[in-house]
Every structure is written in structure tokens, then in C-alpha cells.
Amino acid sequence: MQVDIIITLRESILDPKGKASRHALENLGFREITEVRIGKFIQLEIDTDDPGEARKLAEQACEKLLANAVMENYEIRIPDNA
φ and ψ at 8, to 5 degrees? Predict the structure, then answer.
């Protein structure tokens, strides 16, 4: 089963990559874009047909390795076609 994980910096954490990207976009004429936050996208393939079990395993993986709980938030998504 496919599980998608989106990891973003907490709002209280400065995002220098996002800030640099926002300035670059502004220089390219994208003045309507007022904020950019850079994160990570992780896709897991988990050997189960149970969405609950897949979510549980993904949460454990995030808590133990994939996300830094002090600085990052994560969101787990199981696509409808999974």
C-alpha cells in the first residue's frame, strides 16, 4: 500500500530555503507570492492491505527517523487508489 508523507517545518522555525526561493520568485516577477516554505515529500510502499496498519507504521517511521519532532510537522496521506 502506498503512503505519502509530507514534512514541513513548524511555523516557529525560520526557513532560509523558503525565504531565498520567495525572493528569487519575486525577482522573476511573481510578486503575488508572499511566502514560500520548503518541505519534504516521502513516499513509502508498505506491505499491507490494511490502511490503519499502514498509517500506524508510517507514524512510527516518522517519529523514529523521518521527521524531527522538535522542528517539523508531518502529515500522512493514503491515496484513494492505494
Answer: -130, 155
Element (H, E) at 77: strand 72-77
pLDDT at 81 over 90: no
- How high is the pLDDT of residue 31? 97
Angle at 41 between CA 24 and CA 37, to 5 degrees: 35
This prediction has a pTM of 0.87
Largest CA distance in the chain: 47
Q: For the residues 58-81, what does the mean pLDDT come to?
A: 96
For residue 29, the surrounding DSSP H or E stretch is none
Domains of the chain and CATH, by start: 2-77 (3.30.1280.10)
